[in-house]
Amino acid sequence: MSELNSRKDGAVVLVGVDFGLPHFDGELEELGLLAQTAGLEPVARLIAKRRAPDAALFVGSGKADEIRELAELHGAGEVIFDQALSPAQQRNLERQLGVAVYDRTFLILEIFAQRARSHEGKLQVELARLQYLSTHLVRRWSHLERQRGGIGTRGGPGETQIELDRRMIGDAIRRTRERLAKVQRQRGTQRRQRERRDTFNISLVGYTNAGKSSLFNALVKARAYAADQLFATLDTTTRHLYLGDAARKVSISDTVGFIRELPHGLIDAFKATLQEAVDADLLLHVVDASNPHHPEQMAEVQSVLREIGADNVPQLLVFNKLDALDDAQRPLSPTDEIELDGMQVSRIFLSAHSGEGVAALRAELARRAPSAAAAMTPEPDTELHDAAGGLAQSPH
Fold first, then answer.
1. What is the pLDDT of residues 4-43, one digit of tens each?
2. Positions of the region Disordered (predicted)?
3. How far, in Å, are 15, 23, 93 from residue 27 at the CA level?
4. 379-383 contacts: CB < 8 A, separation 24 or more?
5. Backbone angles phi, psi at 65, to 5 degrees
6. What pLDDT sits at residue 270?
7. What angle do CA 365, 396, 286 make, to 5 degrees?
8. Is residue 342 very low, low, confident or very high in pLDDT (cuts 50, 70, 90)?
9. Other CB atoms within 10 Å distance of the CB of residue 242
């Protein structure tokens, strides 16, 4: 059982601290969705305003007392902060509040651990969790910091329990890295095979819950898991897509969604999966057109693309969920161009759910795919691989 779900009721208090930054989520809407995705029930929310984090408690002692009273009032056994906490802040808060305290980073890691299905995905999440744990051992281990040594003990003379656990985690990190490297080599072999076949590679990227998997299914008539929730799918799936207008096949990949303040450990761990975006010939940047915060979400996606070295890959903006827009919000034209990071980028409006605009997207992909490079005989769409680097089963 996961650490977050160890409480029977799953009731949590959400806390956000406004430091005056423009992207602050004043309603804690996204944190609430993350908590629900992890199987928790937000029962109360509290917003604090500060110029800078308190070194000891992040929110200060007065606000910490308010949080404790709120947790007691609603019977919550856990408190989740929308920002990353230092190990010392997390330890101090737990002592002050008398309940378990987590931060946004841990919550995202927990969701990834629940959702990973492929061998590679599980290894990537495990690596990120181990790296997070290695820096947060101080949180719950103050009672184990006594010296251990002598006959029959695990460590040498004078070695503390926390040092032993840190060494054990370090060993686990090395083993996981070695296993992940083996899977990554398999993926690299598959990628080189596609390159030799002169395949035009397309990757779907975007903020989580923008509808990437739904669009992927609409394009290739697949049954990849898609749901109206954050991080519905983590594992990259690549399939062939036949474009009749170009008389050729292309390779299209559905990748993990991005989110604000995506933990760097996860970005590092998922670089093998995200390599599909780096090596792509075209990125389909899927945007939830119905979300009022979509400009900020687009900026977050661009930030991650820069971090993984995919910011120079050509993009086509796909504004999804057209069916969720009111008549007054619908665009005057199904296609146009907008500025993105100082460059003019083409944009297509569509609805993966209703199918409106999907044919126009296929036509645009056919226009961009170099048909003369490798015309192929039409065949049924077939799945190439999943994130485990092996053959994946086609949906029935």
1. 544 447 899 999 999 998 888 888 999 999 999 899 999 9
2. 369-396
3. 10, 12, 22
4. 379/240, 379/242, 379/249, 381/220, 381/221, 381/222, 381/239, 381/240, 381/241, 381/242, 382/239, 382/240, 383/222, 383/237, 383/238, 383/239
5. -65, -40
6. 67
7. 30
8. confident
9. 19
- Our CA angle for 365, 368, 374, nearest 5°, is 95
Winning range, highest mean pLDDT, from 89-93, 111-115, 153-157, 384-388: 89-93
The pTM (predicted TM-score) of the whole model is 0.76
Distance, in Å, from the CA atom of 322 to the CA atom of 319, rounded to the nearest integer, reads 7
Residue 21 CB-density burial (10 A; 0-12 exposed, 13-18 middle, 19+ buried): exposed
The token duo for 188 is: 């690299």
The closest alpha carbon to 315, from 332, 339, 296, 288, belongs to 339
Q: Which residues contact 177 (CB under 8 A, 6 or more apart)?
A: 127
CB 251 within 8 A of CB 240: yes
Burial pattern 29-56, b for ≥16 Cβ within 10 A else e, equals ebbbbbbebbebebbbbbbbeeeebbeb
Q: What residues contact residue 169 under an 8 Å CB cut-off, 6+ apart?
A: 130, 133, 134, 137
Interhelix angle 119-135/104-115, nearest 10 degrees? 160
Position 8 scores a pLDDT of 47
Kind plus residue range of the DSSP H or E element containing 338: strand 335-340
Number of residues that this document lists for the chain: 396
CB atoms within 10 A of CB 227: 12
Q: Find residue 318's DSSP bridge partners.
A: 286, 348
CA–CA separation, 49 and 28 (whole Å): 14
Query: Would you state the structure tokens that stand for residue 96, as one six-digit string?
Result: 């002050």
Calpha distance 213→142 (Å, rounded)? 44
Helix (H, G, I), strand (E, B), or coil: what is residue 258?
Answer: strand
Q: How far is CA 241 from the centre of its chain?
A: 25
